[in-house]
Amino acid sequence: MGRKAITLDEQIQLLESRGMKINDVSKAKEVLLDVGYYRLGFYWFPFERESDRNRERCHEFLPGTTFDDAVKLYYFDNSLRSILQKYITRIEVNFRTSLVYFISNKYDEQPTWFVSPRVVERDYITSFDREVYTDKFKRNKFIASHHRKHINDRYAPAWKTLEFMTLGSNIALYKSLLNLDDKKLIANNYGITYTNIFENYLDVVRCVRNTCAHGGLLYDINLHPLIRRGPANVVGDERKKLCGALKVIEYLLSRVSINRAKDYRKEIEDLILKYGVSPAIKTVLRETSGFNV
Fold this sequence. Notes:
Blueprint: H1 8-17, H2 25-35, H3 37-44, E1 48-50, E2 57-61, H4 67-106, H5 122-131, H6 135-138, H7 141-149, H8 158-161, H9 167-175, H10 180-189, H11 195-213, H12 242-256, H13 258-275, H14 279-287
Antiparallel strand pairs: 1-2
Helix pairs in contact: 3-4, 4-10, 4-11, 4-12, 4-13, 9-11, 11-12, 12-13
Protein backbone atom coordinates (compact mmCIF):
# COMPACT_ATOMS: atom_id res chain seq x y z
CA MET A 1 0.00 0.00 0.00
CA GLY A 2 3.06 2.25 0.08
CA ARG A 3 4.10 4.75 2.72
CA LYS A 4 1.30 7.24 2.23
CA ALA A 5 -2.03 6.91 4.05
CA ILE A 6 -4.98 6.34 1.72
CA THR A 7 -8.72 6.75 2.17
CA LEU A 8 -11.31 3.96 2.53
CA ASP A 9 -12.33 4.43 -1.10
CA GLU A 10 -8.72 4.08 -2.18
CA GLN A 11 -8.29 0.97 0.02
CA ILE A 12 -11.33 -0.62 -1.62
CA GLN A 13 -10.06 0.30 -5.08
CA LEU A 14 -6.62 -1.14 -4.32
CA LEU A 15 -8.04 -4.46 -3.07
CA GLU A 16 -10.28 -4.81 -6.11
CA SER A 17 -7.39 -3.97 -8.45
CA ARG A 18 -5.49 -6.89 -6.91
CA GLY A 19 -8.30 -9.33 -7.59
CA MET A 20 -10.34 -9.33 -4.38
CA LYS A 21 -14.11 -9.53 -4.78
CA ILE A 22 -16.05 -7.16 -2.49
CA ASN A 23 -19.78 -7.84 -2.52
CA ASP A 24 -20.84 -5.12 -0.09
CA VAL A 25 -18.64 -2.04 -0.36
CA SER A 26 -20.45 -0.18 2.42
CA LYS A 27 -19.95 -3.08 4.86
CA ALA A 28 -16.32 -3.46 3.77
CA LYS A 29 -15.66 0.19 4.58
CA GLU A 30 -17.24 -0.30 8.01
CA VAL A 31 -14.94 -3.27 8.71
CA LEU A 32 -11.85 -1.48 7.42
CA LEU A 33 -12.57 1.50 9.66
CA ASP A 34 -13.21 -0.82 12.61
CA VAL A 35 -10.32 -3.30 12.27
CA GLY A 36 -7.91 -1.45 9.99
CA TYR A 37 -6.42 -2.21 6.59
CA TYR A 38 -3.04 -3.19 8.01
CA ARG A 39 -4.40 -5.67 10.59
CA LEU A 40 -6.86 -7.22 8.15
CA GLY A 41 -3.91 -7.75 5.84
CA PHE A 42 -2.71 -10.52 8.15
CA TYR A 43 -5.95 -12.36 7.36
CA TRP A 44 -6.04 -11.95 3.60
CA PHE A 45 -2.35 -12.87 3.36
CA PRO A 46 -3.15 -16.62 2.92
CA PHE A 47 -5.33 -15.74 -0.06
CA GLU A 48 -2.53 -13.96 -1.93
CA ARG A 49 -0.75 -15.86 -4.66
CA GLU A 50 3.00 -16.41 -4.72
CA SER A 51 5.38 -15.09 -7.35
CA ASP A 52 6.50 -17.94 -9.60
CA ARG A 53 10.07 -16.69 -9.60
CA ASN A 54 11.03 -16.19 -5.96
CA ARG A 55 7.96 -17.42 -4.04
CA GLU A 56 7.48 -14.05 -2.41
CA ARG A 57 4.03 -12.52 -2.21
CA CYS A 58 3.08 -10.27 -5.09
CA HIS A 59 -0.03 -8.82 -3.37
CA GLU A 60 -2.32 -10.26 -6.00
CA PHE A 61 -5.14 -12.49 -4.82
CA LEU A 62 -5.94 -16.02 -5.85
CA PRO A 63 -8.95 -16.36 -8.16
CA GLY A 64 -12.22 -16.32 -6.21
CA THR A 65 -10.83 -14.51 -3.15
CA THR A 66 -13.48 -12.48 -1.34
CA PHE A 67 -13.28 -9.79 1.30
CA ASP A 68 -15.76 -11.83 3.33
CA ASP A 69 -13.33 -14.76 3.60
CA ALA A 70 -10.59 -12.55 5.05
CA VAL A 71 -13.06 -11.11 7.56
CA LYS A 72 -14.29 -14.59 8.51
CA LEU A 73 -10.72 -15.72 9.17
CA TYR A 74 -10.27 -12.64 11.37
CA TYR A 75 -13.42 -13.50 13.34
CA PHE A 76 -12.30 -17.12 13.62
CA ASP A 77 -9.05 -15.96 15.22
CA ASN A 78 -10.88 -13.58 17.56
CA SER A 79 -13.35 -16.24 18.70
CA LEU A 80 -10.56 -18.78 19.18
CA ARG A 81 -8.64 -16.23 21.25
CA SER A 82 -11.59 -15.85 23.64
CA ILE A 83 -11.94 -19.62 24.03
CA LEU A 84 -8.25 -20.15 24.68
CA GLN A 85 -7.93 -17.32 27.20
CA LYS A 86 -10.76 -18.81 29.24
CA TYR A 87 -9.36 -22.34 29.36
CA ILE A 88 -5.68 -21.46 29.61
CA THR A 89 -6.56 -19.54 32.78
CA ARG A 90 -7.75 -22.82 34.29
CA ILE A 91 -4.41 -24.45 33.46
CA GLU A 92 -2.45 -21.47 34.74
CA VAL A 93 -4.26 -21.41 38.09
CA ASN A 94 -3.96 -25.18 38.50
CA PHE A 95 -0.26 -25.21 37.67
CA ARG A 96 0.43 -22.41 40.14
CA THR A 97 -1.59 -24.17 42.84
CA SER A 98 0.29 -27.42 42.25
CA LEU A 99 3.65 -25.66 42.42
CA VAL A 100 2.74 -23.92 45.66
CA TYR A 101 1.15 -26.95 47.29
CA PHE A 102 3.68 -29.67 46.53
CA ILE A 103 6.87 -27.67 46.97
CA SER A 104 5.67 -25.65 49.97
CA ASN A 105 4.69 -28.82 51.80
CA LYS A 106 7.96 -30.53 50.99
CA TYR A 107 9.90 -27.53 52.32
CA ASP A 108 7.43 -26.59 55.03
CA GLU A 109 10.13 -24.92 57.13
CA GLN A 110 10.96 -22.54 54.28
CA PRO A 111 7.90 -20.46 53.35
CA THR A 112 10.06 -18.49 50.90
CA TRP A 113 11.61 -21.56 49.30
CA PHE A 114 11.51 -19.82 45.91
CA VAL A 115 14.64 -17.87 46.93
CA SER A 116 16.37 -20.69 48.81
CA PRO A 117 19.68 -21.87 47.26
CA ARG A 118 18.82 -25.34 48.59
CA VAL A 119 15.71 -25.46 46.42
CA VAL A 120 16.22 -23.15 43.45
CA GLU A 121 19.08 -22.35 41.10
CA ARG A 122 21.17 -19.33 42.10
CA ASP A 123 20.67 -17.55 38.77
CA TYR A 124 16.93 -17.47 39.37
CA ILE A 125 17.42 -16.15 42.90
CA THR A 126 19.86 -13.49 41.74
CA SER A 127 17.38 -12.13 39.20
CA PHE A 128 14.30 -12.47 41.39
CA ASP A 129 14.27 -8.94 42.83
CA ARG A 130 15.02 -7.40 39.47
CA GLU A 131 12.58 -9.41 37.38
CA VAL A 132 9.80 -10.46 39.77
CA TYR A 133 9.79 -8.87 43.23
CA THR A 134 10.04 -5.34 41.91
CA ASP A 135 8.77 -2.14 43.53
CA LYS A 136 5.67 -2.42 41.34
CA PHE A 137 5.12 -6.02 42.47
CA LYS A 138 5.39 -4.98 46.11
CA ARG A 139 2.72 -2.32 45.56
CA ASN A 140 0.18 -5.06 44.97
CA LYS A 141 -2.28 -4.47 47.82
CA PHE A 142 -2.04 -8.02 49.18
CA ILE A 143 1.76 -8.12 49.07
CA ALA A 144 1.93 -4.61 50.54
CA SER A 145 -0.46 -5.65 53.31
CA HIS A 146 1.78 -8.59 54.16
CA HIS A 147 4.83 -6.36 54.51
CA ARG A 148 2.97 -3.87 56.68
CA LYS A 149 2.08 -6.67 59.07
CA HIS A 150 5.44 -8.45 58.85
CA ILE A 151 7.96 -5.65 58.50
CA ASN A 152 10.98 -7.94 58.87
CA ASP A 153 10.00 -10.26 56.00
CA ARG A 154 11.97 -9.66 52.84
CA TYR A 155 9.43 -11.67 50.86
CA ALA A 156 5.85 -12.79 51.34
CA PRO A 157 5.50 -16.59 51.59
CA ALA A 158 5.13 -18.71 48.47
CA TRP A 159 1.35 -19.04 48.61
CA LYS A 160 1.07 -15.25 48.44
CA THR A 161 4.00 -14.42 46.17
CA LEU A 162 3.39 -17.00 43.45
CA GLU A 163 -0.27 -16.01 43.29
CA PHE A 164 0.70 -12.70 41.69
CA MET A 165 3.59 -13.90 39.56
CA THR A 166 3.04 -14.22 35.82
CA LEU A 167 2.69 -17.60 34.17
CA GLY A 168 6.12 -17.06 32.63
CA SER A 169 7.69 -16.37 36.02
CA ASN A 170 6.12 -19.46 37.56
CA ILE A 171 7.30 -21.59 34.65
CA ALA A 172 10.81 -20.17 35.06
CA LEU A 173 10.64 -20.99 38.77
CA TYR A 174 9.59 -24.56 38.01
CA LYS A 175 12.45 -24.97 35.56
CA SER A 176 14.87 -23.61 38.17
CA LEU A 177 14.06 -26.22 40.81
CA LEU A 178 17.31 -27.96 41.69
CA ASN A 179 15.95 -31.37 42.64
CA LEU A 180 14.60 -33.47 39.78
CA ASP A 181 12.25 -35.17 42.22
CA ASP A 182 10.69 -31.79 42.99
CA LYS A 183 9.98 -31.29 39.30
CA LYS A 184 8.55 -34.79 39.05
CA LEU A 185 6.12 -34.05 41.89
CA ILE A 186 4.49 -31.48 39.64
CA ALA A 187 4.86 -33.26 36.29
CA ASN A 188 3.46 -36.52 37.65
CA ASN A 189 0.40 -34.63 38.83
CA TYR A 190 -0.34 -34.11 35.12
CA GLY A 191 0.37 -37.72 34.20
CA ILE A 192 3.72 -36.86 32.65
CA THR A 193 6.79 -38.94 33.53
CA TYR A 194 9.53 -36.88 31.90
CA THR A 195 10.00 -33.35 33.14
CA ASN A 196 11.44 -32.14 29.83
CA ILE A 197 8.12 -33.01 28.16
CA PHE A 198 6.19 -31.20 30.88
CA GLU A 199 8.39 -28.13 30.53
CA ASN A 200 7.85 -28.21 26.78
CA TYR A 201 4.07 -28.36 27.26
CA LEU A 202 4.26 -25.40 29.65
CA ASP A 203 6.21 -23.45 27.03
CA VAL A 204 3.49 -24.21 24.46
CA VAL A 205 0.80 -22.93 26.81
CA ARG A 206 2.81 -19.79 27.51
CA CYS A 207 3.39 -19.19 23.79
CA VAL A 208 -0.33 -19.47 23.01
CA ARG A 209 -1.28 -17.37 26.03
CA ASN A 210 1.13 -14.60 25.07
CA THR A 211 -0.09 -14.69 21.48
CA CYS A 212 -3.65 -14.24 22.74
CA ALA A 213 -2.70 -11.50 25.21
CA HIS A 214 -0.85 -9.45 22.60
CA GLY A 215 -3.35 -9.86 19.80
CA GLY A 216 -1.11 -12.09 17.74
CA LEU A 217 -2.26 -14.40 14.97
CA LEU A 218 -3.37 -17.85 16.06
CA TYR A 219 -4.31 -19.54 12.80
CA ASP A 220 -0.69 -19.50 11.59
CA ILE A 221 1.14 -19.59 14.93
CA ASN A 222 4.63 -21.03 14.51
CA LEU A 223 5.65 -22.84 17.68
CA HIS A 224 9.24 -22.75 18.84
CA PRO A 225 10.54 -25.02 20.18
CA LEU A 226 8.58 -27.80 18.51
CA ILE A 227 6.13 -29.76 20.63
CA ARG A 228 7.78 -32.87 22.04
CA ARG A 229 6.28 -36.31 21.64
CA GLY A 230 4.29 -37.18 24.72
CA PRO A 231 0.83 -38.00 26.09
CA ALA A 232 -0.86 -35.20 24.11
CA ASN A 233 -0.17 -37.36 21.02
CA VAL A 234 1.12 -34.55 18.80
CA VAL A 235 2.82 -35.91 15.68
CA GLY A 236 4.38 -34.78 12.42
CA ASP A 237 3.76 -31.21 11.31
CA GLU A 238 1.32 -30.78 14.20
CA ARG A 239 4.38 -30.23 16.37
CA LYS A 240 4.75 -26.66 15.08
CA LYS A 241 1.17 -25.75 14.23
CA LEU A 242 -1.97 -24.49 15.94
CA CYS A 243 -3.67 -27.89 15.95
CA GLY A 244 -0.78 -29.36 17.94
CA ALA A 245 -0.89 -26.53 20.48
CA LEU A 246 -4.63 -27.10 20.94
CA LYS A 247 -3.96 -30.80 21.62
CA VAL A 248 -1.45 -29.90 24.34
CA ILE A 249 -3.93 -27.49 25.95
CA GLU A 250 -6.68 -30.11 25.83
CA TYR A 251 -4.42 -32.72 27.41
CA LEU A 252 -3.37 -30.47 30.30
CA LEU A 253 -6.95 -29.31 30.77
CA SER A 254 -8.09 -32.95 31.00
CA ARG A 255 -5.75 -33.35 33.98
CA VAL A 256 -7.43 -30.37 35.62
CA SER A 257 -11.04 -31.31 34.85
CA ILE A 258 -12.43 -33.92 32.46
CA ASN A 259 -15.64 -31.93 32.08
CA ARG A 260 -13.80 -28.69 31.23
CA ALA A 261 -11.72 -30.57 28.67
CA LYS A 262 -14.93 -31.84 27.06
CA ASP A 263 -16.38 -28.33 27.01
CA TYR A 264 -13.18 -27.02 25.46
CA ARG A 265 -13.12 -29.67 22.76
CA LYS A 266 -16.75 -28.98 21.83
CA GLU A 267 -16.19 -25.22 21.62
CA ILE A 268 -13.18 -25.74 19.34
CA GLU A 269 -15.03 -28.23 17.14
CA ASP A 270 -18.07 -25.94 16.89
CA LEU A 271 -15.85 -23.01 15.93
CA ILE A 272 -14.12 -24.96 13.17
CA LEU A 273 -17.49 -26.24 11.94
CA LYS A 274 -18.89 -22.70 11.87
CA TYR A 275 -16.10 -21.14 9.83
CA GLY A 276 -14.97 -24.22 7.91
CA VAL A 277 -18.07 -24.12 5.71
CA SER A 278 -16.17 -21.69 3.50
CA PRO A 279 -13.91 -23.68 1.14
CA ALA A 280 -11.26 -20.93 1.30
CA ILE A 281 -11.24 -20.91 5.12
CA LYS A 282 -11.20 -24.71 5.20
CA THR A 283 -8.06 -24.69 3.05
CA VAL A 284 -6.34 -22.27 5.43
CA LEU A 285 -7.35 -24.31 8.50
CA ARG A 286 -6.05 -27.49 6.87
CA GLU A 287 -2.83 -26.24 5.27
CA THR A 288 -1.78 -23.50 7.71
CA SER A 289 -3.33 -24.48 11.05
CA GLY A 290 -3.00 -28.26 10.52
CA PHE A 291 -6.60 -29.27 11.17
CA ASN A 292 -7.98 -32.39 9.55
CA VAL A 293 -10.97 -30.70 7.88
